[in-house]
Each structure stands twice: as C-alpha cells, then as structure tokens.
Amino acid sequence: MRGLWVDAFGPGLKTRAQVAQMVDEAVKLGVNTLFVQAIRRGDCLCMKSGLPLATDPDLEKNFDPLAIAVRLGHARGLRVIAWASVTGVANTAAPNTSPLHVMRTHGPDSGKNSWLARRPDGTWQEGSDGWLDAGIPEAADFMVNSVTSLVRNYDVDGVQLDRIRYPDGGAWGYDPKTVARYAAETGAKGTPIPGDPAWQAWKREQVTALVRRIALEVKSVRPTAWMSAATITYGPAPRITDPSAFRRSRPYTDVLQDWPTWVREGLIDLNVPMNYKRDGVADQGAWFDGWNSYAASVRTRADGVLAPLAVGTAMYLNSPAVTAAQASRSVGAGLGWVGYSYRSPTPGVIAGQQTTAQGLESVGTALRAKGEPLAAPLRWTAEPPSLRGLMGRVVGTAQPGGRVVEAWQGGKLVATGLTDGSGYYGFLTLPAGKTEVRVSGQRWSDTVPARGVARLPDLLARDVAPLRR
C-alpha cells in the first residue's frame, strides 16, 4: 500500500477543479490509495453523512467533495478511504456555523446534555480544540453513526479513524455523567484522581469499545470495507523484548489509546501509525525505526492472521530526500507507506518557498528514483482480514456497560469482551460457525457467517452476576 493523506484545511477538496487536480497529482506521484478527509470537526466535506457541511468560504456550492473524490479516484485505479476525525469535533478559532453542529446541540453550554470531555475543574478546551468524551454513551452513539454513514452512503473503500482517543494530557473524562457511570460500573467511591490506574484503564476501554462498535457497524454495512486507524507514536518506541512496555508508552498512558489490542482483536484491518519523526533531529531517526519495528511485532491477531501495517510519515517535517529514505526503510521492512500530506508535502511549502505542485514534484522525484518505493507503480488489491463478526446488545438494566461477555464454540471459551455504555458487545476474530454468547446469566446461540456480521437479538440482562471480574 502506498498512500497519501488529503486533508480538508488547504487546497485539494474544496472545488471540483481541485479534486480533479489532486487525483491527477496523486497518480503522477505513484500512490495507489487516497485517505480523503471527510469528517473534519463534527462536520463533513460531504453531503450525505447526517452531519452538517463543513463551514468553509472556499467550499464550492452544491458540491460533494467525497463523492467526486471517490468517482475520480476509482476511475484512475486508486482506492479511496474516508478519513474521519472521531472524538475531535471543534476548534474555537474556526467554528462551524450550523445550528445543527454538535457543539451547538451538545456543546459547553448544554448543561447536562453536554458531550464534551472535561478536566477535573470542568474546563473543556485543549488549546482551541474541543473533544467528545467516549465515556458518554450518547456521544459514542453519535460518533458511531457519523462514521458508519460514510460507508452506507458512499462507495468508499473503507474508513480511517483519526483522533480516536482522549486529548493530550491524561486528565480528561471528568464530565459528571462519565464519573457517575464509572462509579456505578466499578463501585469506585468519590472522584478518581487523574493518575488512578483503574480510572485510566476504564477510560481506555471506552475508546476501545468505540473502535469495536464502529468496526462492527461498518462491517455490517460492507464486510469488504477497510477499517483503519491513524494511531499515536509519541516519544521513543516500546522495547519489543518487553511485553509490558507499551503499557508505559505515551499513547497508552497519555491519550489512552491501546492500538495493539485493536490489532489483536481485529478491530482494525489496517494500522497506520503516525510515525511523524525527523531524521537527524536528536533521537528521532531511531524513534522512527523503533516504532516501525514495534508495530510490526504486534501485527499478529488473535486468530493468527497477520494484519496489514502501513507507516505514516510527516513529509511536511522532512526534506524530500528524508521522506524517500523513511518510505524506503518502511517498504524495505515489508510495510506499506502513507505520506502526510497532499497540502504540505515539504517544509518549503509550509514556509511559502514552494507551491504545493512544486513540493509534490520534488517529493515525487525522490520517491520515484531508481530503487525507491514509488519507482514501480503498484495496485493495492488485498481484501481486509476482518470480513465477518458477531454483535449484540444487552438491555433492561440501568447499568448496561462493563458486563463480561463470553463467546463459546464447540464447548470451548474462544473470546471474552465487555459491553459498552449502551450495552453493545461484539467480536471480529471468531471462526465462522455456531457460537454461543453468554452474558449476565443469559445465553443465545447463533451462527457467525463466513462473511458479514451476525446481529443477535437484544438480550435482557438479569443482574445476577458482577459487571466485571
């Protein structure tokens, strides 16, 4: 896989002419996949998602950027994956003006109806940004429906989840509804301190549950859709020889993103670590190689399948020669490559010393040189490894979240999981065949299909078992 991120903050998606030019330049560059930003900040550069249209004076009227990008990209042999910012929904410096935007309906002034992630003192801004709290069930429902709508309404080849985490800093999740839910599910007393390991683990599970449910809903609409995530690689990489090292890394402790678990459980088909490092700056070159090696070491899923992995690099931070070198090291290790971004392919473009077209040409020359990753154009035709699943929901209880769910096949326990705040559960690495689900004293048998998602009927919970164990 050779990819290019196309973001919504500069030229590339705002007019029909820009989209046509972007596709032409991507083909010339030699990539085979476009990650086209659709959901930006609780809004969409598309017209059929259920979200308000992005507020941008440069956006052409009566124009659906995602639809045109898919049509033109497919016509040129490119795969087009809809890129979605999930929990990151607002920027106060450039707010969406629609009265239907989530910041108007469930924003900071919505009282008990607010869905925002908050610090212990109640503040919600991280710089100029606002984020939804994955621990609020209604907010999670909103995020699931928003992303799934992209697959339901557009012929995209998949979705990529970005900003699928809590904000930087760790001290988030203090909306009173979230704290009350944590106490109800775990029995914890009082307000947890930010560094409480149990509190952090619970919030981390809320993010994972959100990824799980999006994956199951996407696969239920289209089993062949790629489920991807742009994952965090802050700081030095964990040591491969230490199985617990990731649990001390910044992605795990700071933003509560457990992407090795997402890979292992088949929640994402394609991991794209945002390995944004600068060769030659302190230890960053070694960090880049370390994260590549670590991500490659955790590619094996619970069912033994090796999950695809593509390395995301920051073209905007590096010279074309360094971009080519990082891409070459990634591809040489048997991994894919994705460059960020079409709008900012070189530091020279960021500094105003080159146009975007000039920057793309200089990067393309480096990437297409003899022996470099894009020297021989390739098609990416693989199918995603997760083509089937099983999902359901627990109802009839005041505390649907945090319930242990077991999947049994042939008399053997084959998987366990937890329900989310709305009672949903599911699995994506089960073998096809008859499966029994056990949760809260209830049992139900169904068949996991060879392709597609089996959706079990709602199970009425009987509160005869602890929520967790």
From TrEMBL:
Tell me which InterPro entries the record gives. Divisome_Glycosyl_Hydrolase, GH, GHL10
One Pfam short name: GHL10
Q: State which residue ranges cross the membrane.
A: none
Which SUPFAM superfamilies does the annotation name? (Trans)glycosidases (SSF51445)
Which residue numbers delimit the Glycosyl hydrolase-like domain? Answer: 1-278
Q: Which UniProt keywords apply?
A: Signal
- Note whether Signal occurs among the keywords: yes
Protein name (Swiss-Prot/TrEMBL): Glycosyl hydrolase-like 10 domain-containing protein
